[in-house]
Design brief:
There is one protein chain. By secondary structure, this protein is an alpha/beta fold. The chain is built from eight helices and six strands. A six-stranded mixed beta sheet has the order 1-6-5-2-4-3, sandwiched between helices. The longest helix has 24 residues. About 5% of the residues have low confidence.
Length: about 210
Amino acid sequence: MNTNKPGATTAVARGRRRPKRGRTIILLGISGSGKGTQASLLSGHLRGSVNISTGDSFRRMAKKKNLLGRFLAAILKEGDLVPYWGPAYVWLTRFFERLKGDEDVILDGAPRRIEEARMLDDFMHDLGRPLPIAIYLELPPAAARQRLLKRGRADDNRRAILERFRFFKAYVRPVVGYYRRHGRLITVNGGQAASAVWRDIKRALRRL
């Protein structure tokens, strides 16, 4: 896809009617693609939705002066991979605390591995909810690096950024492919202004 062009492409299987409530919407993209911004906009748009950001949760947990906090702080500093049980803990905790039945769920930046995507599918299937739909904010690494360096967050050092990009290529791209193969992927040009990205997301969701 040419990321200099606006618009969104949708690879969602035809012939399946999905309820307007009770959807699970995943935001995927390389670090710096604007997942958090779009998740916040989507949360405001979908009243009563449950918004889960594994990255924000990990950063809060990493500030705690205990064994798990020190463990996560070291991982985030190096840009390394949080074990699979980390995202699972965050999701399940929020699901048990917040999920009543028909709420929309927004997942910011996860699942980031095939195993996590399959586990999330199993979880939603067992609960009788529609399977998740993924929105992929497509952005070239060079553009993402510029954004991250301007952002100036403590864990946005050059080494950590490089490790996150490597992780994205090795693990998250296959997750994008997983949702594409299963007809549950929306691709949006993440190189646009945030307002244009949000416009394209709304248009794509209306077509589902």
